[in-house]
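Archive entry. Fields below.
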Amino acid sequence: MTEEIEPLLAQPLQIAPSWNAYQAACPTRLMLNRIADKWTVLVLGLLESETKRFSTLQREIGGISQKMLTQTLRGLERDGLIARMVYPEVPPRVEYTITPLGQTLAGLLGALRGWSEAHMDEVLQAQSAYDKAEQGALKPEAANGVRRVRF
Amino acid sequence: MTEEIEPLLAQPLQIAPSWNAYQAACPTRLMLNRIADKWTVLVLGLLESETKRFSTLQREIGGISQKMLTQTLRGLERDGLIARMVYPEVPPRVEYTITPLGQTLAGLLGALRGWSEAHMDEVLQAQSAYDKAEQGALKPEAANGVRRVRF
DNA sequence: CCGTATCCAATGGGATACTG
DNA sequence: CAGTATCCCATTGGATACGG
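PREDICTED_STRUCTURE:
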């Protein structure tokens, strides 16, 4: 748990080594680091419409392990984006609900989903074009001037 | 010399095994997996306002390695979100520009930045509240009820 | 049913050295 | 200046087994 951080105490308030203040203080970076894992956005999206229990989430997502679902839910709960309710029954029942704060974020992520669906074909097309150009680059023919300028 | 081929960016959207069709076909998942790394969003944000060259980006970001900046720029270029221009000068000059497609995405990410800045304090507050409750759970004092039952 | 604990493979990403 | 090529470690996340 408590590692050796003694040597760091001698230093004058450096947040992260070799990082400037801009990044460390940037809330966007912090939030992105929280959202940008494999399952968080998906779970939040599923809870946006209605309250669900653990097993339901696991079934609807499909392919997530118990460990990761628990971990993801804990993270969202810690950030105040969802709420966890335990009903002392037998067998136990646990429900997860999105909070008002979580709703506002889910709305934004919905917009991102809309963008993805609207522009996915363009991205895929750009990818195949890029890969095709890479293939051609292996054959040094007209490698002059400004290469691969594409809009 | 290169024993193992580097399939890094050259792969055409591979689908992970043991995933159901819902996830694999979901464009949002695909885009999130592309955006959700350590530097992509930051780089796109810096290029939103103006064209910049490699060294400028590295300096302004601060803390990113050459390898990761190159990798990030390649990924964005492959997706058609930025364009790369090489000017055959001595010393060589390379500039990166955001594309119209990239602009639309950058706008959304700007909204996400706005959310982060607006709600960061709420999230931090929720976190400390959660952590505080965790501490209390170590001392089992009745605390029975519907909420937060830790074992 | 809802977790927690442990092990382990895959990936991400930094440091460094070298090239055109 | 703008990369490429290696090495290597820290983190992520899946599989499995166990517990309230």
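CURATOR_NOTE: Confidence is low (pLDDT under 50) at residues 1-19, 138-151 of chain B.
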